């Protein structure tokens, strides 16, 4: 297996159009290393059946039991990377034709991974999207559950989590602030529990309206070319409208 893994690493450095080219006798692909390590048939056999789980111990409904290497990777990253006060969550698409086709994404066929990252963008924890997970809290959204799952080891440490409007919600903000974790993110207009005063406010360009709950959850709306909503648990808010006038030079 060490030889197999070594070949995989070497192939990541030395690129060829197709896998069989590594064992080709053509003068264009005169590689001695793969031939001396193992035959092509042996390599392809290992590649076909190589995974990191015992099929007999698979939990029913767990669609990622053969991808336990992701957990090994996350443990390695957690031990290697030192987090700061600011962290963020987002998703990335990993090209893979064995999964669903998403025409709006650049890769088309791909696997979606949710990632918790450092301020500089290094991945600290990750989770693979496998569809609806019946083990989660079904009263909450999938983005709510995946956020709590990725950050569960960091709750209570006073960190600030930044996110886009796919993840941001008022219930998530309350759940995090109870665990001494702040949230800052853009907020979709169709989310539940947005203060009615903020939702209905008609703003001129440059105007801001914000409202803060007793627990410290602030929902803010700002008008530029269009309305932008932000939710924060580490910024103060008011119920008044503030207009910012542009100063002339």
* Average pLDDT metric: 84
Strand order of the largest sheet: 3-2-1-4-5-8-7-6-9
What is the gyration radius calculated from CA atoms? Answer: 24 Å
User: How many E-type strands?
Assistant: 9
Q: In DSSP terms, counting alpha (H) and pi (I) runs of 4 or more, how many helices?
A: 7
Structural class given helices, strands, pairing?
Answer: alpha+beta
Largest sheet: 9 strands, mixed
Low-confidence sequence ranges: none
Shape: elongated
Alpha carbon gap, first and last residue? 70 Å
Helix content: 25-40%
Strand content: 15-25%
Question: Topology as H/E string?
Answer: HHHHEEEHEHEHEEEE
Pfam family, one: DDE_Tnp_1_7
Domain PiggyBac transposable element-derived protein: 1-247
Protein name: PiggyBac transposable element-derived protein domain-containing protein
InterPro entries: PGBD (IPR029526)
Summarize the structure in short:
The protein has 249 residues and is α+β, with helices and mostly antiparallel strands.
Kindly describe this structure.
The protein is an alpha+beta fold and 249 residues long. The protein is built from 7 helices and 9 strands. It starts with a helix and ends in a 6-residue tail after the last strand. It has a 9-stranded mixed β-sheet, sandwiched between helices. 25% of the residues lie in helices and 22% in strands. Helix 6 links the parallel strand 4 and strand 5. This is PiggyBac transposable element-derived protein domain-containing protein. Pfam families: DDE_Tnp_1_7. It comes from Rhamnusium bicolor.
